[in-house]
């Protein structure tokens, strides 16, 4: 039996106040997630030749600025859970981009170090990030981009304290 839509009849719209997610596309959460997905997909396309994912690039980026770092410190700096960082480190280690080394004075503490192979990715990932930033700036303008970035940082800071479970695994 053919559906009403296949017979050319339009499906009756649900009133906005009765919809399961009233105007969800207008919500801050939806718009923030959409922005994240758009920029993440763009960055992924820009770094395809490196063989790593954006999340791995963020970990490497922290290590390029300050090495070695513990898994706990990486999680804190990237605002993600320790288990998530651990999974990312495992993939980076298998790819030969980082090494985990125990501290002689405290065998419980493991520090993350870049390998020479990990250091070679710095330039292509840096160029990809700069190119993406430039493309965004060309599209939305430097002033609007700076305003949006400052607003997002402020909102994220406020919400991280309001919704602390969102920052853990």
Explain this structure to me?
With 169 residues, this protein is mainly alpha-helical. It has a domain of 92 residues: Orthogonal Bundle (Arc Repressor Mutant, subunit A), CATH 1.10.10. 57% of the residues lie in helices and 10% in strands. A 3-stranded antiparallel sheet has the order 1-3-2. Helix 3 crosses helix 4 and helix 6 packs across helix 7. The longest helix has 21 residues. The mean pLDDT is 88.
Main beta-sheet strand count, sense and barrel state: 3 strands, antiparallel
The CATH architecture of the domain at 53-144 would be Orthogonal Bundle
Number of helices: 7
Number of strands: 3
Unreliable stretches: none
Percent helix among the residues? 55-70%
Strand order, largest beta sheet: 1-3-2
**Gross geometry:** globular
CATH-defined superfamily of the domain at 53-144: Winged helix-like DNA-binding domain superfamily/Winged helix DNA-binding domain
Structural class: mainly alpha
Mean pLDDT: 88
The CATH topology of the domain at 53-144 is given as Arc Repressor Mutant, subunit A
Secondary-structure element series: HHEHHEEHHH
Share of β-strand residues: 5-15%
């Amino acid at each position: 039996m053919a559906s009403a839509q296949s017979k050319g009849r339009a499906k009756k719209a649900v009133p906005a106040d009765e919809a399961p997610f009233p105007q969800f596309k207008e919500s801050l959460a939806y718009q923030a997630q959409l922005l994240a997905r758009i920029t993440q997909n763009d960055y992924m396309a820009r770094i395809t030749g490196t063989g790593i994912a954006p999340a791995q690039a963020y970990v490497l980026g922290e290590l390029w600025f300050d090495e070695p770092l513990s898994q706990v410190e990486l999680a804190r700096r990237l605002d993600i859970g320790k288990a998530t960082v651990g999974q990312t480190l495992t993939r980076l280690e298998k790819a030969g981009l980082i090494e985990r080394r125990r501290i002689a004075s405290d065998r419980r503490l493991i520090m993350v170090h870049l390998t020479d192979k990990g250091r070679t990715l710095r330039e292509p990932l840096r160029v990809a990030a700069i190119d993406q930033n430039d493309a965004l700036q060309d599209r939305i303008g430097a002033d609007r981009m700076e305003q949006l970035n400052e607003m997002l940082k402020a909102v994220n800071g406020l919400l991280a304290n309001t919704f602390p479970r969102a920052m853990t695994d």
